[in-house]
Design a protein that fits this description.
alpha/beta; 339 residues; three-stranded antiparallel sheet; D-Maltodextrin-Binding Protein, domain 2
């Protein structure tokens, strides 16, 4: 081979390397919950590993070692490019995302897997046209199991038990429903719940499942657990990525990523359901009683829950969405996919 051919071969080799390097996209994802939180270890990171494998390493998802923004600032930070991807609690998006609040309505959820699949399917069928996530690339929607009420000394199972006490709750419908019963509600992000609950400033807490109470180290303060049949709410979240970073990925690889996201990601929440079931057994074996809310509390919750449903249907109509049809579809899908 002459020098001209050698140089030509070298140029082609360098071009191939350059093309390969250009095709590789690294996405930095933020986790506002602790890295060891079961959602991160059982759902998010295995999904990321599958993305890397399915794209032969062309799309690499990496995770910040500690949260780079507050829970309320995840979407804004992704839009600004502080990091490339994140997940965010819909309770902090009430002002800009109305439709996905459907999962927070009372008495319509079964478990995390069923509700997560229902939320994604309802989004695709009814909500996508409203384009509420227009500033980011939406990858998936998901929920956690609904949360009970944790009494820190005595059980909280009636309206009389809630009257005048202080109770911690995450933001959203759970906090609103508890306020209507006469309780003094302390609202803060779940990531801050430990300092509030451990500090002894509240008498009870609610708004997240036992899995989260264990992850946030607050389960140890629960002396009684009151279940709400049908659940007061299911904490729901959006998983998303920066739009410019998404466009940097080839069309073929974007399809691969979406095939692993959407409903496929939602179905991964079955791992959280399994963990929740085991934790409930473990806590019961430790002598913590489990009970259901009495009729006085259920009546109060149903009364205000009816208003919440009506308000959501009205908000949906303002976005040209048939809220009643979407709600019926969601409930059917949540039950059908709970197994």
């Amino acid at each position: 081979m002459n020098i001209k051919n050698l140089l030509g071969a070298g140029v082609l080799a360098l071009a191939a390397v350059g093309t390969a390097a250009q095709a590789e996209t690294k996405l930095l994802f933020n986790m506002f919950m602790a890295p060891q939180d079961p959602f991160n270890t059982l759902v998010l990171k295995p999904w990321a590993e599958d993305v890397i494998k399915a794209t032969d390493g062309r799309v690499k998802i990496e995770f910040a070692p500690a949260s780079m923004a507050s829970p309320q600032a995840q979407m804004d930070a992704v839009e600004k490019g502080v990091f490339d991807g994140a997940y965010m609690y819909h309770g902090f998006l009430q002002g800009r995302v109305k439709l996905s609040q459907i999962a927070h309505l009372p008495f319509i959820n079964v478990n995390a897997k069923g509700s997560s699949i229902a939320l994604w399917r309802t989004y695709e069928k009814y909500f996508a046209k409203a384009n509420e996530y227009k500033d980011v690339q939406l990858l998936s929607l998901f929920t956690f199991p609904g949360g009970p009420i944790y009494g820190m000394s005595d059980p909280v199972k009636s309206t009389a038990d809630l009257d005048g006490i202080k109770i911690y709750s995450v933001a959203g419908n759970v906090a609103d429903m508890l306020t209507k019963t006469g309780a003094g509600v302390v609202v803060a992000p779940a990531a801050r719940s430990y300092e509030i609950i451990s500090g002894g400033t509240v008498d009870a807490f609610a708004g997240y499942p036992l899995y989260s109470a264990t992850a946030f180290h607050t389960a140890q303060y629960a002396k009684a657990v009151t279940d709400i049949p049908g659940q007061m709410s299911a904490p729901s979240f959006a998983l998303f990525v920066n739009k410019k970073r998404w466009q940097a990925i080839s069309e073929a690889d974007r399809k691969i990523v979406m095939d692993l996201s959407g409903e496929a990601f939602a179905a991964r929440l079955e791992a959280i359901d399994q963990l929740e079931a085991q934790l409930r057994k473990d806590v019961a074996n430790q002598g913590v009683p489990f009970m259901e809310a009495d009729e006085s509390l259920m009546t109060a919750f149903r009364t205000y829950g009816k208003k919440l449903r009506g308000d959501w249907i009205t908000a949906a109509a303002e976005l040209d969405v048939d809220g009643e049809a979407a709600l019926k579809f969601y409930e059917q899908e949540a039950k059908a996919n709970a197994q």
